[in-house]
Amino acid sequence: MVTLTQTTTRQGFFAPGRFEADVFDCEVQGGKIPEDLNGAFVRVGGEFFYPSMYPNDGGFSVDGYISMFRFKKGIVDYRGRWVKTPRWKANRAANRQLFGNYRNPFFDDPSVKGLDRTVANTAVVAHAGKLFALKEDALPYEINPKTLETIGPWDFNGKYKSETFTAHPRWDPVTGDMITYGYEASGLLTNDIYVCVVDKHGNVKNETRFKAPYLSMMHDMVLTEKHLVFPMGGYVTNMKRLKANKVHWGWDKSAPGYIGILPRDGDGKDVRWFKTPLTAAVHVFGGRTVGNKVIIEAGLYNSNPFPFFENTDGSPFDPTKTTCYLHRQTFDLNSKRDGFEDEIIFSDPASDLGKIDDRYTGQAYREIFTTYADPKRPFDEARAGNLRGRVSNCYGRFDLGTKKITPLFAGNTHSLQESTFVPKSKNAPEGEGYLMGVASNYAEMRAELIIADAQSMTELARVILPFRSSAALHGKWMGDDELDFG
């Protein structure tokens, strides 16, 4: 029997749905589906199938749920399935939650000791004809792209030599290589970083290791034509913390921030660390190498944005310090100092959940697509359930040249999840194509996939689901040339 834990994040629109779904030939409002969109928008996120074992567990412990909007000749079908990891199967067999706090194995039920704890709930990628659900505490989980059924963990034929795999690998648009990494690569509480290049056929080409200045979350990276860039800092953990039954990470405002830069043709001993003012660099948009300088753009928070990662000094979570701004950071590799130049490139707050045109990965690009909250837009709190504090109400095309933001407003009872960009064609100019992302309609208690022209940011159509859809953490467009969706 399931007893729901009623918290502000698990009721109303956010109450667990606990079902799998197929919706064929989805309802479309407001226009027509472009017939040149053939592939799928695949997302993963999740919810607790069984409630947390402990009240201080974090939102990142939710069971993985993978879903896709399948586009073919102007028709869209929807499919959603649980990612059936060993953890999910063990819980279902026991009809209860057997696993303790986020990335802390010491207070699990004894019956699951040594079992893979991952929920595979963070990101989805396609590579070498395979679909994977990712979470950075374990190996990728392969998913059948036709059925979304879980196949199991994948170690690249035994050649991938880390216990962990990032949620955010990057791709070289010229070679098709996937550049990936794992932190805590040698096991729990190790500060080892493992970096690996997988060719377009799925074969490991080369690998290297290095140690971080200290163990901290390293959720994302930047790939340029010549370098790999690894932001870290602020999030800390240790055995004492885990044995006290806390979640894996705490936020230590006294911990230093670092940016590691590794030449793509170097090995671990060549990594160079730059010290940074402590900001939460969770996601990065992209970057490039220009001469002897490495330049990156990222959405940065001036403090910890996650309330379930408590402050280690015991101070309460402060939501006023979680505003995100888009930064440009420039690192001079000829300089002997460990500092860098930093500028805020847009005065309006935004989100770090954004995308560039992936064809420009590692190169100069002009446009960033991300969500943001526009307080000047109307919000119907009465119909939306008084959820104003949760609302990112606009998608925006942020032009790095003109510093102009072109918005798309989702609606006065809607909140937006991460978007994805789809090029009009392989040879289309940068940013010419489609933007799509899911809006949560709080008033109608349903999910709506918005499809827009990415240049004008005008809405082309909405795909309507007749139910609430679990909030996704990350999603990605995958074309018919990447995966066989059947």
- Given helix and strand content, the structural type is mainly beta
Helical residues, percent: under 10%
Our estimate of the beta-strand percent is: 35-45%
Cα radius of gyration in angstroms: 21 Å
CATH topology, which one? Neuraminidase
Main pleated-sheet profile: 5 strands, antiparallel
CATH class: Mainly Beta
Rounded mean pLDDT score: 94
Count of distinct structural domains = 1
CATH homologous superfamily assignment: TolB, C-terminal domain
Q: What is the overall number of helices?
A: 3
User: Which outline best applies?
Assistant: globular
Task: Report how far the terminal alpha carbons are from each other.
Answer: 37 Å
Low-confidence stretches: 1-6
Second-tier CATH architecture: 6 Propeller
Q: What is the number of strand segments?
A: 32
Identify the strand order in the major beta sheet: 1-5-4-3-32
Your description of this structure?
The protein has 486 residues and is mainly β. The protein has one domain: 6 Propeller (Neuraminidase). The protein has 3 helices and 32 strands. It has helices at 86-94, 239-243, 381-384, and strands spanning 21-23, 27-29, 39-47, 63-72, 75-82, 123-127, 130-134, 141-143, 150-153, 170-171, 178-183, 192-198, 204-211, 222-223, 227-233, 235-236, 250-251, 257-263, 272-276, 284-290, 293-301, 324-332, 341-344, 354-355, 367-372, 394-399, 405-409, 414-423, 433-441, 446-453, 458-464, 472-479. Strands 1-5-4-3-32 form a 5-stranded antiparallel beta sheet, with no helix packed on it. A hairpin with a 6-residue loop joins strand 7 and strand 8. It starts with 20 loop residues before the first strand and ends in a 7-residue tail after the last strand. Residues 1-6 have low confidence and may be disordered.
